[in-house]
Amino acid sequence: MLAEVDRVTFEKLFPSDPHPFISGAFCELNRSKVDSIIRLVDSALEIPVGLLAGIRRDTLLSPFSAPFGGFHFRRDNIYISEIDKFLKQLADYAKSKSLRRIEIITPPDLYHGSFNAKAINSLIRHGYQTSCPDITNWVDLAVFNGGYSQKNSREYFRQAQRNKLQFGLTQDPIEWDEIYNLIRINRAKFGRPIFMTLDDIISTGRLWPVDFFKVVSENKQIIAAAIFYRSSHEICYAVFWGDNDEGRPLRAMDYLLLNLFSHYKAAGYRYMDLGISTESGIPNEGLLRFKESHESVSSLRYRFVLEPHKF
Length: 311
Known about the structure:
- By secondary structure, the chain is α+β, with helices and mostly antiparallel strands.
- The chain has two domains: 2-130; 138-300, Aminopeptidase (3-Layer(aba) Sandwich), CATH 3.40.630.30.
- The protein has nine helices and 17 strands.
- Strand 14 and strand 15 (282-283) form a beta hairpin.
- The longest helix has 17 residues, at 80-96.
- The model has no long low-confidence stretch (mean pLDDT 96).
């Protein structure tokens, strides 16, 4: 059976977080968004799998305030039977607590491929339902050679250079506000909601560095921007990005992205996680095409739901 343990015990059992969005510090920062936080482990400590999740009303959520959640594990090459046993115990736990639903969004394979494959296989075999998976995109900076590989993207970048755009990292809180509002307006225009306030983003900076980037036109106006988390030593995460009506014909996004590649490669990062190109599984074809024509790889991110009382 599964037992709830405190944070100290859980972090002794799982001293390394598979990714930052299921770290104890991040979950505690967002504690107000759920009724309670639970940390589940096998009571006999026989299974090297754990789950840090939130309870909101009668639903167990992983994540409860992040792009993805999932499981803790002590080693990547655990037996799949150990995942199977944990999921059986998780369903029993949910029934014992009269929980109506379990919702789990697994991370992209970029974060832990082998464990992910086994967990997804096991979730499906244990009756978890999955809707259309989201398409997520990432860039391997190890193969980035300083320029775009596709001809059209190279030409768009040269156009941006001829337009005398400038790229920079800003520490100015006034510009942070301008960057956030530019991105918020951009997302609203294309029907992509934004669920974080600027204060939410800044408060996350207590856990890891948050970078605000700008692209400035010849007349010194911010016309494109990006906000990134440096949330792990190897992967930087694109929180939000976008341009405005002035920046689009100037090729500001083409200029922004290549400069971001160069910036983070020089800083020693291996990967850039550019996030999903879908909304509830429905592709944003223009966004997906943009990412794929600018060096990114597409892969899948799954959302699983189980209603334990049906089993």
